[in-house]
Write a structure and sequence with these properties.
- The protein is α/β, with parallel strands linked by helices.
- The protein has a five-stranded parallel beta sheet with strand order 2-1-3-4-5, with helices on both faces.
- Helix 8 links the parallel strand 4 and strand 5.
Length: 354
């Protein structure tokens, strides 16, 4: 997929880029995976070609604009963080104009449940400091893709680190311009490339369990869910997908069982929506139906998780209102545009078929 997206970014085929990215998202890949394994690597290739003179400036800039659009659309598609979610802000300091890294960071943090906001690029230190003081901040990130003056960068960073420390916020730095020598002169809570290692050190049992699933898959050639649904492992299998399988696939088993239990109890299940169920009932019976659905979901989690129960919440919509989620409006428009395009293509094919 990386090569396909890269080639279409170079040719400026925005529609095909969008189709590939959202096909991956709708197939269950996280925004984080899409950023790491597709968009970042694709744009890394494009950047290298531009530096080597193999790509004209306008193609590189156009690819950047398309990538920013895709990241924005993915941001609209992921769940809106809860009001009580931890707050993160970040951006790039003066003379650093690179927008893509900040957009990727914002997207990934929001998908993980943070109220993350990118403040942008080439920001004066004073305005970042003001934003830190005005926010109930837990995390400040600084992306460093370009450095005009190392002394200036170090001075600006030291000033912001003091402000963040005074407010109790962690400071995470990263970016291709931060060499080991420069980082040694900086104070920070974590360097972006160290975050995974820190997570592994903090939650070793989780990582042993995850790695055990990958090891079994590679040795035996398959993984399975609690109800026996298997995934076969081949030469092209991705270890990250295998590590993610026990959680995602058993989550699917849980939702499938919840659908079965609810339906058998007379509840009209319209459809599953990711990790939720959409049901319908008469207005004077909807509270009872919602409570029964939640009971079915609770039982499903108990069966799949060997007694552990997952909590649920419910949102009830009554006529004349209709169900709508602002987080999905942009994704709905994209899907309907693809459907319309496919319908037009089929109509053309029908007219030329004899």
């Amino acid at each position: 997929m990386r090569e396909q997206v890269r080639d279409r970014l170079i040719t400026g085929d925005e529609q095909q880029c969008r189709r590939i990215v959202f096909n991956l998202y709708l197939a269950g890949q996280s925004a984080c995976e899409i950023c790491d394994r597709v968009l970042t690597l694709a744009f890394h290739d494009i950047g290298n070609r531009w530096k080597c003179g193999e790509l004209t400036i306008y193609r590189e800039r156009r690819a950047c604009v398309i990538s920013l659009k895709l990241l924005h659309e993915l941001r609209m598609a992921v769940r809106t963080p809860l009001p009580e979610a931890p707050v993160a802000i970040g951006g790039s300091l003066s003379c650093d104009p690179y927008r893509l890294p900040n957009s990727r960071i914002e997207l990934v943090l929001r998908e993980l449940g943070w109220q993350a906001t990118s403040l942008g690029t080439s920001l004066p230190t004073a305005t970042i400091g003001e934003a830190v003081r005005d926010s109930r901040l837990r995390l400040l990130w600084l992306s460093v893709s370009y450095i005009e003056s190392v002394p200036t960068l170090l001075a600006e960073h030291a000033h912001l680190h003091r402000i963040a420390t005074d407010t109790g916020a962690a400071v995470v730095v990263g970016g291709r311009a931060l060499t080991a020598e420069i980082r040694q002169q900086m104070a920070y809570s974590a360097y972006a490339r160290e975050l995974l290692r820190l997570h592994q050190a903090t939650y070793p049992r989780n990582w042993r369990w995850s790695q055990a699933a990958v090891d079994h898959a590679m040795l035996r050639g398959y993984l399975w869910t609690v109800f026996g649904w298997r995934v076969q492992v081949g030469a092209e299998s991705n270890p990250r997908s295998l590590a993610n399988f026990p959680m995602q696939a058993n989550g699917a088993e849980m939702l499938r069982l919840a659908c079965c239990l609810a339906t058998e109890r007379g509840i009209s299940v319209c459809c599953p929506i990711h990790d939720a169920l959409l049901i319908e009932a008469d207005a004077d019976e909807i509270e009872t139906a919602a409570a029964a659905t939640q009971a079915a979901m609770l039982e499903a989690s108990r069966v799949v998780l060997n007694g552990f129960e997952l909590r649920t919440d419910a949102k009830i919509v009554r006529y004349p209102d209709r169900y709508s989620d602002p987080r999905g409006e942009r994704l709905w428009e994209i899907v309907m545009a693809i459907v319309a395009e496919l319908g037009q293509a089929e109509a053309v094919e029908d007219r030329v078929t004899f």
